[in-house]
Amino acid sequence: MRRFTTIAITTAASTLFVASMTHASDTVVAMLPGRLALDQSQLPPDAELEKRGAKIGRIDVRIDDVFEGDKTSLSAPYRVVNGLHIATHDATVRQQLLFQSGEPFHRRVLDETARLLRDQRYLNEASVTVVRYNEDNTVDVEVRVHDVWTLSPGFSFGRKGGENNTRLKFADSNFLGLGKQVAMERTSDVDRTAWRLTYVDPHLFGSWWTLSTAYSSMSDGTEKALGLSRPFYALDSRWSANIGASDVDSAISRYSLGKRIERFEMGERLFEVGGGISSGLHDGWTTRYLGGFRYDERSFTTRLNEPNVALPDDRTVAYPWVGIEMLEDNYLSTRNLDQIGRTEDVHLGRSARFEAGFASTAFGSTRDAFILSGELAAGVDLDHERYLINSLGWHGRLEGGTVADGVFDANSRFYLRQSEHRVFFASVTASITSNLDPEKQLLLGGDNGLRGYPLRYQAGKTNALVTLEERFYSNWQPLKLVNVGGAVFFDTGRAWGQDQYAAAPSGWLSDVGIGLRLGSARSGLGNVLHIDLAMPLNRSNDIDSLQLLIETKKSF
């Protein structure tokens, strides 16, 4: 009997291995003459402040240490970690603020700033609050953030579908407290062994421009990527721009029943330049007009030890495109949904994005085609702490009256809060394809939702997956490092349609299991560590009766 077992060991709190020292400190600015604070017990409501035309006064930034407390209340190990940790610089926080002193006060802008800060991996929590109202009709604001340990050496080992995978990684998502990301890692899995170097500067020279670079040396090729972009960083942003290119040579594998059946080489050259304009936020909506040019060249060759593989035709798709994006300003801040013991910002508004382009031989394409893609999403608050979030996405090429490489994805997630420490979660996902490019497969298995089965187990033209979970959240924080939770789950899914390279789908597959969840409270390495035991309910003799999975994910 073949056994399919998944084991991964992730270092989530490597907090004692760096010899650098600095301390977070509050930003203290002296009160200017004539700016007398009124009785703060009568601080006007936000709506009243906006009605009065209040302006932003002093902005104080407070950066909390990794471990809260003073030298008398913290034990020695925690004081050592705080001392070794390089705190986020005051300027790193300030360059992400969406408001400045002298500008009109708007609670919406303060809330959006807090969401923007909470989205940074090197911060655990963030809040932006009015702390003082002055007689000159200004308000003083405190921006408070909580640092986490971001220097993360780590090692992981795993086994999925009878294949081992390992990762050795040294990364810092807040290099020298500047908010920059550097990483060096070595990975080995079923597809390849690789060394990878990455560097990301999300605020180049203190601006909203992002510089990203990556280089990989792989057992089956290389990867080089470079990008420069200025995103729509806020709902009221007026323009964006981006330019990027990548060059990747790697092996592509085809799978059947969790086993690799053949490989071939693919070279991929990508280039894109684009941008957008917007008139900003109006009546709770922002609309953005987009456009650009994309170039996607793919070439295919056989490997020396597999000369008889059926190769796709070389293909180039180059096209100008235009698009529109609409986003509703409707966010909910809550806790204990997809994270444990941290503030989460859930978008409950509606959003839409549509793109259309035309690939032509005049632009270097190997074929003429209309390129269509889009996304729709909508969140609904059903009252009594019940939330439903739906999304649709599609992309494909219209060539000669047929849809090529067409994919339609649908997802629905439902949350029902039963108590402060218990949530019922359900999700349904489905994908429908049409004439996928030959280097692609629609796969379903233990690596994308069917936790009781091998990775990439079923292949087809359509698939669906249903997940039901009872989630448990606790206030227990062992050694002040992790937030502890758990789950009981049921998964069921299947594929339909014959993949020309794989075995026919074998019908519905289901599993049940229990899991431990460890939410990262002090580290920027990963958000939630999953430790799951899953039992397949429809198994053949080559599948183990109990699967152990341990892996780090971004959510519960």
TrEMBL record:
InterPro entries: Bac_surfAg_D15. It comes from the Bacteria. Keywords: Membrane, Signal. Residues 420-542 form the Bacterial surface antigen (D15) domain. The keyword Signal applies. It is found in: Membrane. Residues 1-24 form the signal peptide. This is BamA/TamA family outer membrane protein. It comes from Steroidobacter flavus. The lineage of its organism: Bacteria, Pseudomonadati, Pseudomonadota, Gammaproteobacteria, Steroidobacterales.
